[in-house]
Structure formats: structure tokens, C-alpha cells
Design goal:
Layout: H1 5-11, H2 20-25, H3 54-61, H4 66-73, H5 89-105
Iron/sulfur cluster (SF4) binds near residues 33, 35, 59, 63 and 65.
Amino acid sequence: MQVNPYRALMEDRDDLALSLADLYDRPAWMRDALCREPAYRDVEWFPGRGQPADEAQAICARCIVRPECLAYALTLDRDTPGIWAGTSSRSRRPLRAAVHREAMRRPA
Ligand code: SF4
């Protein structure tokens, strides 16, 4: 079963379907993810279209692994849902495009 990496990040404490391979393959920085704290489990990390994401974004603003989180999020499928590093799926699109453009400009 393919596990959404973001949901795996958020739900590993009680997601019995999560395999050991999923845990092993997870980037080390996720251990320090503020969104994994039990106090933030009820935060809306997957707001629907037009729903506010302020609470999740405020938590991300204080997270020490925000740069790593954003870099990782930009490697994921463009439609990957959820708030990552304070960004939404929609707001990540231009960032992903900028990273792609920069990569194309670099000499091989
Ligand atoms: S930046 Fe936000 S989504 Fe990313 S690990 Fe930190 S709290 Fe979680």
C-alpha cells in the first residue's frame, strides 16, 4: 500500500497500516517536524479549497525544519494536498516552477 508521505508524517503514532519500510524511508528531518506534536494533531493540515490555513501556517512559521520541509514538498507530485512549510498545493506551484527553471539554467 502506498502511503501519502504527508499523512504518514502526521499520523505515524496510530496508523497501523504504516509499514516499517515507510518509516525507514522517511527523511530524518521529519523527526523534528512540529506538526507531529500531539498538541497539533487536530489542526486542519488539509484545508479544502477556500478554507483558512492560518493555524497550520502559524505552526509552520515556528518549525525548525521548514526549509527541509519545503524542499521536500517541492519534489512531490504537484497535486499533493496539505500545508507543507506554510504553503498550499496551489502556492507551491510557482515555487516548483521556479526551482525547475533554475535547474534548467544550470550548466550540466
Ligand atoms: S514546516 Fe509545517 S508542515 Fe513542515 S514539518 Fe514543519 S510544521 Fe510540519
